[in-house]
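2024-03-11 09:14:02 INFO worker-7 job=invfold-0412 stage=load source=structure_tokens
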């Protein structure tokens, strides 16, 4: 039985962590022996009961020069003897790659989900001497890396789109108008993601300033910058039209309950929440962050705007709200099934990992 070790020592549960869970479940069900490396007391319960999947918890992830973490990883990998290891987070690349090479692991795969500068001596060592390979989630990111350095070619840089299961758009939903005391004619704009400057939620008041009073934003998520961003939003008169749901276990309730979805990010790889909105047949407005142009097929399946262009984002939202721009929900869902299905992601992952 072939073995793989997935490194995901994270304190945050987001899109990357969800994809590790999906890959672990699939590979285990396919008959591979899967080990997932997590931090102590973080998310082990989410992997419990998965077929052929074991969890190993570590006290810390360390830094580039953390000898104790390196030794721990080398011992762990020598004990397991995997055919391939996968590091889901960039901050783990160095130690995981070095440990993998010292432990004699044949194949090292590193995941990059967002544009980063990796044209430095450290990364030359990782890709040149340690022979690590990279998996990205969009063609735009792959093209950027190919142009940024001489490290990569088609033999060590792979693109696998994030995959999604098509959800039922007609199930249970939230009564957001009653929950937040909104008028019956309110138009509900959904936003989702962690509170971070990268996500652009600080721009919401400026966007709403260009929209009629009936437009309201409902946000789902949490994050380390939550208080700061919410405090800044609270100083604006438009804050009365911005509502926060916090963390939601069942995102299907949220997506079914909104009229239109907005991605106002300053940077992304391939935004999972945008895929999810389309999978529910929801019309979307997105900034032209990496991956969005591919996901929306150049604007065929949603409205694209420039980054931080709050007026254009508002115009796109109003165009959808008013009915001037329409997107057939069945076509949006068919697009996800064809190009971004979970099955396709998992089959391509298996091929990258094991060459099957």
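2024-03-11 09:14:09 INFO worker-7 stage=emit residues=356
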């Amino acid at each position: 039985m072939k073995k793989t070790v997935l490194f995901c020592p994270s304190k945050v549960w987001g899109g990357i962590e969800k994809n590790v869970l999906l890959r672990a479940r699939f590979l285990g069900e396919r008959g591979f022996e899967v080990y997932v490396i997590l931090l102590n007391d973080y998310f082990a319960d989410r992997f419990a009961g998965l077929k052929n999947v074991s969890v190993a918890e570590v006290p810390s992830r360390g830094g580039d020069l953390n000898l104790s973490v390196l030794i721990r990883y080398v011992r762990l990998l020598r004990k397991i003897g995997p055919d391939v290891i996968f590091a889901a987070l960039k901050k783990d690349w160095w130690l995981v790659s070095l440990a993998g090479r010292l432990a004699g692991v044949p194949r090292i795969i590193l995941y990059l989900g967002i544009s980063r500068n990796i044209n430095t001596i450290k990364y030359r060592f990782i890709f040149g001497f340690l022979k690590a390979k990279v998996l990205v989630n969009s063609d735009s990111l792959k093209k950027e890396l190919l142009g940024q350095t001489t490290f990569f070619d088609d033999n060590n840089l792979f693109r696998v789109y994030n995959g999604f299961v098509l959800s039922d758009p007609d199930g249970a939903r939230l009564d957001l108008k009653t929950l937040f005391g909104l008028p019956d004619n309110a138009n509900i704009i959904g936003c989702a993601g962690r509170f971070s400057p990268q996500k652009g939620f600080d721009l919401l008041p400026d966007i709403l300033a260009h929209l009629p009073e009936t437009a309201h934003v409902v946000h789902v998520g949490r994050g380390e910058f939550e208080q700061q961003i919410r405090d800044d939003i609270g100083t604006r008169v438009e804050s009365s039209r911005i509502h926060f749901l916090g963390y939601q276990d069942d995102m299907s309730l949220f997506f079914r309950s909104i009229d239109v979805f907005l991605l106002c990010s300053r940077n992304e790889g391939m935004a999972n929440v945008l895929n999810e909105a389309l999978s529910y047949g929801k019309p979307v407005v997105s900034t032209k962050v990496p991956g969005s142009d591919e996901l929306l097929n150049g604007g065929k399946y949603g409205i694209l705007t420039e980054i931080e262009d709050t007026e254009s984002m508002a115009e796109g939202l109003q165009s959808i709200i008013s009915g001037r721009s329409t997107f057939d929900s069945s076509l949006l869902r068919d697009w996800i099934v064809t190009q971004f299905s979970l099955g396709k992601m998992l089959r391509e992952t298996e091929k990258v990992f094991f060459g099957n």
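2024-03-11 09:14:09 INFO worker-7 stage=report msg="Residues 173 and 257 are 5 Å apart (CA to CA)."
2024-03-11 09:14:10 INFO worker-7 job finished
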